[in-house]
Amino acid sequence: MTDGARRLGLVLLLLAVFVGIAVVDRVATRSAASVLGAPDQALATVRVAPPGVESAAWYCAGGTSSAAGASPTLLLANTAERPVSATIDAVAVGSSGSSATVTVPAHGSAKFTPSSLSGGTDLAATVQLDGGGVGVWEEVYGPAGWSVAPCASAAATQWYFAHGSTATGDSLGLALYNPGETVAVVDISLSTSTEGTVAPAAYQGIDLPAHALVVENVGDHVQNDPAVAMSAVALSGSFVAYERQTTGQSAGGGMSLLLGTPTAATVAAFAQSTDVAGGSVTFDVFDPGAHPATVSAVVGLDHGSTAPFSLTVPAGATAALATAGQTRVPSDTPFSMVFSSSTGIVVGRAVGGPSGSAAPQVGITGATWAGARRWVVPEVPAPGSGAWYLAVADLARGPVTLRVLAATSSGFSAVSGVPGRLSPGQPVFVGPKPGAPIGAVPLEIEASGPVAVQLDVQPAGAPGVVVIPALALG
Amino acid sequence: METLAPAVVAVIVTCDPGPWFEETLAAFAAQDYPELSYLVLDAGSVEDPTARVAAGLPGAYVRLLGRNDGFGVSANEAIHMVEGASHLLFCHDDVAPDPDAVHLLMEEAFRSNAGVVAPKLVSWDDPARLLHVGMAVDKSGAVVDRVEPGELDAGQHDAVRDVFLAPGGCTLVRADLFAELGGFDPHIFVLGEDLDLCWRAQVAGARVVVAPAARVRHLEQLASGRRAVPAAVLSQIGARAARAPLSEPVALEPVALEPVALEPVALEPVGAGPPAGGPAPGPPGEAPARRRRSMTPRRHGRRRVAMVTLQSLQRRHELHAVMKSYSRFHLVRVLPQVFVLSSAEYVIALITRHRDRAFAVAHAWRWNLARRAAIREERRQVAAYRRLDDAEVRRLQLHGSARLTAYLRRALAEGLRAAHLGGAAEAARQLGEVPVAPTTAPPRAAVPVRGVAWLIAAVVVVFGSRSLIGNGLPYVGQFLAMPSVGTLLHRFASGWQPAGVGTTDPTSPATLLLGLGGIVSFEATGLLQKIVVLGCIPVGAWGMVRLLRPLGSPRARTAGGLAYLALPIAYDSVATGQWAALVAYAVAPWILLRFFRASTLEPYADDADPVTVGRRPGARRRHPLRRHALALGLLLAVVVAVAPSCTLLMPVLALALVVGIGVAGGTGRGRAAGRVVALAVGGALVAGVLLAPWLVVVALGPGTWQVLGGVAPAAAAAPGWSQLLHLALGPIGDSVLTVGFLVAAALPVWIGSHWRLAWAARAWLVVASTMAFAWAAGRGWLGPLAVPAGVMLAGAGAGLAMLIGLGVVSFEEDLRGHRFGWRQAGAAVAALAAVVGALPTLAASLDGRWELPPTGYGQATAWMTAPTVARQGDFRVLWLGDPRAVLGAGWQAVPGLAYTISVDGVPDTTGLWPPADPGAAGAVGAAVRAAVDGSTVRLGSLLAPYAVRYVVLVESIAPSIPDVQSPTTYPPPAGVVPGLLAQADLRHVISQGGYDVFVDDAALPLRAVVPGARGAHGSVPSGSLSDAAVVPVLRGDPDATAVRGPVPAGTLVAAVAPGSTWQVVGAAGRVVTARRALGYAAAFPLPRPGVVELRYEGSVPHALGAAAEVVVWLVVVAALLGRRRWLDWWWGPLRRRVGSPGAPSPGRGDAAAGPGAPAPGPGHSGATAPDAPVPDAHRVST
User: Fold this and answer.
1) Among residues A161, B77, B143, B656, which one has the fewest Cβ atoms lying within 10 Å of its Cβ?
2) What is the CATH number of domain A165-241?
3) What is the pLDDT at residue B281?
4) Domain A43-150: assigned CATH number
């Protein structure tokens, strides 16, 4: 072989190697990037640890027994096949707490009233579990209203709230709880409809000692604003933040307890909303980032999706989408709503029931910011209440299969009458049926793709006023 | 006439004096000192000088000694022959004192109460020029003149002063002192007897002064090369060390050394005839001025041989004086320092191919070590009359190293070449001659250009490293604190390592190697660390030069070596604290060199003559593959021991070369590939033997590849193909300019032909294979075969540098005869590309530390050593992070997350060699895993039994300090930070600056007493650890295998594994055996308070294993060195001496049998003149 031929062969070989590897590397990098993303991390703040874990914890900070007369209750639902022991430490504002132990039976539920441990009006609790598989919610129930919010399975360094109101008669509070051993320092900024973003001096550098609860009354700094979005960011440490919203003082109002969103996500979903006649459904889209968000909102109906709504949300501002009067949203028909955004957003929903409907008539709910394949919801907690809808919305790009399992003494068994297949964007509503276990026992929802799940409960002025958000199962 | 002047005897030693002798005699005859008598001792002159003495110095006594045993031995005759004299004036036969010289010397002797007085020595021909006015000496015995060569005498040195050395030629010595000292050292034939005498005189309490008023002219026949040292003297060691004659004309039978029975000779008056018994054997007449010959080693057959030069004599006698004159305490301090300096000089001399100097250094040590017994006896004699402590004696010695100072001074003033030539340059200048060039000196015209290039490169490297050299290395990545020598050696031998939470697995032999290095560096472990880190850069460049030497082009060597030096790989490794990559950079060329030689492919077919190989295709020789395997195995063993993650470098290079051989084609490729494979297997086997039993335990452990390959970073964080292509593994290579090296490396493919094109193909395959391996391993596609990308990139860098060298050869060989065209244009582009590629490295040199952050985690976590922290007892620190950022090497907690454990702060260097089986520390990893995947929120309680008080999560190689340093960041895998933040029982105390610190307040102290009832049972449940009543005990030295101190009553819990290997010894000697606690640790019930000792029981098998390992290393090293001709100087004679003391030296036999060697005849019996040596100008006074 001549030198020329060897040279040519060598060049071709080297080119093949170097270019070939470059191509493979690019493909591999792209596929690796596609599996990365923030939602998993955000989801970790409301995820039920798998049953096999050594320990798990939940942090609940929205409990209050203040003027509204509410009484906080912790709801524990165990999906594991063994009883799990829970140590509950309750603290009140300005006081150290005490602890108690509760055992959650296998496939069962338990309730605990933290006010039995601490006499304060504002309470926070840490639930430490000797195992996984247990989800914890916090319920506030009283004359002023009824609300259920998930507890947080992890503290975070930032929390966002898309909707709050300090309008006349409304009371907006922000509960900040530091469950860790490290002192946290928190800044709060408010996005108002009148003054834009404000950062009250009193809300800068809020000191949160270890295991301390601080409750701030937002109305002290923003008065008479019906649309207030809030951001709480830790300069150091981590914490848990809850919004407590009381609307009106009469029987027509309501009380909402809302766990913040730990990260601005590009997807936010509500599995079920219903625009009842005389009522209102308003979605507030908050862009906490530095760039305007272009948002698309898709209405999912059982027979398909409508043309999406388009919104542009300025940076640091909030945009509202009211469904009343929208021809794309049929009245009295359950629908799902999925928001997609070019940048991270936080979405909240305010639902008002028709005048004269059952109390509570007003409720605020946060969106599901990440889909999961397995969810758990507890039994409906309040006395005399029942399930309205178990709503499941398909967030996948393709169809998914669905199973709803109800807890029994021997384990979870499938609930009959549930559609086994969901199309993209299509919601499924498992309505109340006589004898059906919906709302009576903890439910586990399994899907082959990411879905969003919520349980609507009654009595309430309208579907969506009182919602029990499902917790993702790890 | 009766005088009151003390009697002085001038002792003049002659040996075939030349025509100047009459002038010498006349000068003595003209002395005005009244009580001066003369004793002429003739050391075996061929012509009896008696008549000349009688004519010039009537009344002088002449004694014909009949043989030449050297100046000292001859002069010592005066002890027996002279009585009643106050002083003796020892003179050469080529001096001419001024008429008042003796008078003035005696006056000064009494005025100063000096034991030794030296005159001012001036040039024979030009008395206005100074030769010596006393001399100075440093602690290593190196002599430094007080005057400059050729310095004019303007009275500037005319003050009387104490000096350390009165140079020979003309020296006045108090007679009683001379007798007490036993005269001159009889082992010193010539050169150095004056130093020895003066040193001992001062040890005996005598002053040595110089009296410049007394002036003596000195011809310096020997120093100037006009008088030769007898061949027998030069060959008495050199001929045995070498295996061939020194030079053809020299008969090697040292007749003069044969015992000669001398008749008792009475003092002969002038005019007496020769002594009875006939003429004594002596040298034949030799011309005063001889043709000067090279002193450099010369070839004889296949061997290069060296001869003993004046330089060698001087060096060995200096060392001799050092070894016999210091007290034991000072000798132990000084001798290792002298050894280090000698080793450095030896290496530099070898590198610069001044083999005569290298030989002189080696010869000095070998000659003296061979006379250990004699030196011991001489030391005893010195001790008998020692009156001054060494501290007093050393007052007059120079501080520091005179030789090093002179080298640097010459380097700065006259350039490196003059510095390398050393004294030879000065001597030659004095003689008006050209210094002898190195044997293999390249063409003169090429030297300055390449020399300047290398000098510039060296300056850039030193300039770029200046801050690291001056300030030390921060604790970053794998740059960790070097423990003390004792700690290193103890960890090798003790059988218990503090790695993890403790293990009895054997540790890497690197602890032994570094421990020995620490001894050589006088326990300056900081210096040792700089050497082993920064030294990798020149070693790698040197290896590249050696790799390219067979190509036959000095320009190619220079270009390739400089290109390798300019690659950003080494500096990025420094910038990111990756010692393993630096080690790989250093050894990659050496490994390739072994493979290339083993392949026997042209031009590596003949590596015996590195200059001419490649030019003589037919000159193939059989290659000793076993020798290559031994050398490669030893190299691998060292490399794997100190940097286990380099393990895969050799196999990958071998595989790449085999593929390259196949791709390049040509005849004999099968055989070549087979030899490469055989060498790889052989080298691996040798390395395996050397590294056993450590390697065996590693291989059997669950984390073998985590130790040998390192913990792999997360696939998403691994460097991509683009990064690898432009060598961007750190801040320096992260530039598009470095692609220039790839462009330059394309040249040999572009223009090369024949073997140059073939080697270009092989080198490119090396580049592509190593890069591809690094890329695939980073992606996790090679299973457990993880390897740091920097390690593999070192192999690629060696390939690139070789390609650049090949490009130069191709330019020289393949473009010859071509008219200017695209090929020449391509060469210009390649050259420009290489220069452009080097720009990032040049720019990075500006900060003086190759962008390595000045502040490491040692400073950032210094608060851990605060007394307030220490009061809580010793503790462990759990380090988490990307494997490239975490301190030391450890185990994988989750993919992409490594964990290491240290005690009381940052880990030390031994943290680089974790056991493959983390043992009990595996539970720590499991706990971290649980925290990261959300399986626990109580990491603190899980870590508490392991005494882990702090968890440090590193996210960059060093703390990030705004406006000060922005280190390279390696974020931990997603989920780690949230996982740790989610822990309910960890206190997050630091969360900025590129790292996070979590505190576990419930952590058990490393050694604690749990009081109360539990103590009686000896079992400690983990739940009790958070008790406030836990008392830390036995604090300090947490790594020790024995610690003693008071403890209260209770249960002593030692959080060390395995607990069963520990015991407690009470005050009364009562031994308390350990009970298992916490699942891994040791608990000892102590019913009463008292002083106890907690100690590791030790392991006999481990001790035996360690000893066996040392023996194996010694055997392999000895076997390897025994085959290296350049070390035969050291090893050969000793081996022969041990083997057959009475056997004739192979050197003699070789000489007798050698072709062309003249048969020694009667007229040449030990008296043939050798080649005239080049003197060492520093110290020639005879």
Assistant:
1) B77
2) 2.60.290.11
3) 35
4) 2.60.290.11
